[in-house]
Automatic annotation (TrEMBL):
GO molecular function: malonate-semialdehyde dehydrogenase (acetylating) activity; methylmalonate-semialdehyde dehydrogenase (acylating, NAD) activity
Native source organism of the sequence: Novosphingobium capsulatum
Protein name per Swiss-Prot or TrEMBL: Malonate-semialdehyde dehydrogenase (Acetylating)/methylmalonate-semialdehyde dehydrogenase
InterPro entries with a match to the protein in the record: Ald_DH/histidinol_DH, Ald_DH_C, Ald_DH_N, Aldehyde_DH_dom, MeMal-semiAld_DH
Every Aldehyde dehydrogenase domain range: 16-478
Lineage start: Bacteria, Pseudomonadati, Pseudomonadota, Alphaproteobacteria, Sphingomonadales
Keyword ATP-binding attributed: no
UniProt keyword list: Oxidoreductase
EC number(s) reported in the record: 1.2.1.18, 1.2.1.27
Length: 500
């Protein structure tokens, strides 16, 4: 059995807890490896190593850190195929999608190659008589990231890029369900010239997460995962005095107005609802057609579109999507489908009971479509995270926007229309963090930043972009005055200084 170890000080190191977790092959349902789970002592060791090399890394001029990032980017590009195959083998997403996972993370590394520019502070000459004010951004020290299973390359790269480029040491606690790619990324960072010990990977479950959250030398933690855990991690980390950013789950709505380009909409919704088997926090699992005519036409076209989708093993180039991550997750999705039926939603296409010849024990689910889903239903309120699309009919555009606004989650939302004024009004009013207009998956590019609202995000600063640079640095502001050459002495004052 293949063992997956921690990556500490540039080398594989076995976990000391004696506890292990199975890593499955989602195509076959078989165990393909075991990952060692960290004890508190393992986390402690990772932090001690990180803390010992971080000051020297932080003292490098930012251009030299940027050069390591340039090389890191080159090595990820060199290994794109290898990373995508390893990712697909543990996650189950198809290879083209796995490459997209790596690519979207790589773009954050491209962004932080500009770190000398991004770290520049502000300067005011003559803020008062002979007084100048300037600010600088300094790294926090040792910081950590805790990541979910569904983007094992992109999300670690969202975090390690800005954390390392700004001069911190970074400890990654990736998902124990697909732990190989995060280790491969840390190895590439060392190959790129990063010092051993600066980027360590500790695998684990709640025990490892708690050890990270409680560790006094870890100054900030970035988390991405489901909302209840995000909230727990946020509170425990904040209680321990850390800077926290915790992204949670989602239930994104796609609003379709009657004037939308239906060919495009159907193609966009099929991809966004079923791509990666729906295991994306920016998937579009809810579609809200405005008016019954729009709903009826959309429903008919979605049924046709679904009939053309191919579910296959993750290396099948013709497959639109592959298996879900584990048998346990598959059972959870199936239970939500049953819940929808029990709650009275209309099951238009049932994806359960699908079997792929030769892979009968794989975690496959065909696409499911529900119509006449209503806001009172639990299957609407909760995140399903599978290839299940729910149609919620709205009478008018205000009702459609209110659905997204009133939902507990607020990660992403999209509107499909040719009406600019309606789209503009929607973007201004909807209470959701990331908005698409005729764009089904509005994941912001690497030089903007990513973050949801309400139950989709706890903490304040977003992932990557300038928010990423801000999250991993603290601002120091210097107010300076130099002795005057004339020898004049500034009058003593017992009043709070003002610039009047
Ligand atoms: P998860 O919450 O189960 O796990 C996320 C991380 O938390 C993992 O590293 C896991 O080991 C750890 N963890 C799990 N249980 C824990 C516990 N009880 N205490 C402490 N730590 C624990 O999430 P997942 O299933 O790996 O990922 C899917 C979820 O992530 C979905 O809800 C999805 O919407 C969300 N997600 C959100 C975003 C975003 O940016 N908002 C992006 C991707 C995924």
């Amino acid at each position: 059995m293949r063992q997956i170890d921690h990556f500490l000080n540039g080398a594989a190191v076995a976990a000391t807890s004696g506890r292990k977790s199975d890593v499955f092959d989602p195509n076959t349902g078989e165990v393909q490896a075991q990952v060692g789970l960290a004890s508190e002592a393992d986390v402690d060791q990772a932090v001690a190593l990180a803390a010992s090399v971080q000051p020297e890394w932080a003292a490098l001029n930012p251009q030299r850190r940027a050069r390591v990032m340039f090389e890191f980017k080159r090595l990820i590009e060199r290994d794109m195929n290898k990373l995508a195959h390893a990712l697909s083998a543990e996650h189950g997403k198809v290879i083209a999608d796995a490459k997209g996972d790596v690519q979207r993370g790589l773009e954050v590394i491209e962004f932080v190659c500009a770190i000398p520019h991004l770290l520049k502070g502000e300067y005011t000459e003559g803020a008062g008589p002979g007084i100048d004010v300037f600010s600088m951004r300094q790294p926090l020290g040792v910081v950590a990231g805790i990541t979910p299973f569904n983007f094992p390359a992109m999300i670690p790269l969202w975090m390690c890029g800005p954390a390392l480029a700004t001069g911190n040491a970074f400890i990654l606690k990736p998902s124990e369900r697909d732990p190989s790619v995060p280790v491969m990324l840390a190895e590439l960072f060392i190959e790129a010239g990063g010092p051993a010990g600066l980027f360590n990977v500790v695998h684990g479950d709640k025990a490892a997460v708690d050890a990270v959250l409680d560790h006094p030398r870890i100054k900030a933690v970035s988390f991405v995962g489901s909302s209840d855990i995000a909230n727990y991690v946020y509170q425990r980390g904040a209680q321990a005095g850390k800077r926290m950013q915790c992204m949670g789950g989602a239930k994104n709505h796609g609003i379709v107005l009657p004037d939308a380009d239906f060919d495009q909409v159907v193609s966009d919704i099929l991809g966004a609802a079923y791509g990666s088997a729906g295991e994306r926090c920016m998937a579009l699992p809810v579609v809200v057609p405005v008016g019954d005519k729009t709903a009826d036409e959309l429903r008919a076209r979605l049924i046709d579109g679904i009939a053309g989708l191919k579910v296959g093993i993750s290396t099948d180039e013709a497959a639109h999507y592959g298996p879900v991550v584990t048998a346990q997750h598959k059972a959870r999705i199936e239970s939500y489908i049953q819940m929808g039926v029990d709650e009275g939603a209309e099951l238009v296409v049932d994806g359960r009971g699908f079997s792929l010849q030769g892979y009968e024990n794989g975690n496959f689910l065909a696409p499911t479509l529900f119509d006449r889903v209503t806001p009172e239903m639990r299957s609407y309120q909760e995140e399903i995270f599978g290839p299940v699309l729910q149609i919620v009919r709205a009478h008018d555009v205000d009702e459609a926007i209110a659905l997204a606004t009133n939902h507990a989650y607020g990660n992403g939302v999209a509107m499909f229309t040719r009406n600019g004024a309606a789209a503009r009004n929607f973007a201004a009013k909807v209470e959701v963090g990331m908005v698409g207009i005729n764009v089904p998956i509005p994941v912001p590019v690497a030089y903007h930043s990513f973050g949801g609202w309400k139950r989709s995000g706890f903490g304040d600063l977003n992932q990557y972009g300038m928010d990423g640079v801000r999250f991993y640095t603290r601002t120091k502001t210097v107010t300076q005055r130099w002795p005057s050459t004339s020898g004049d002495v500034v009058d003593q004052s017992f009043v709070i200084p003002t610039m009047k």
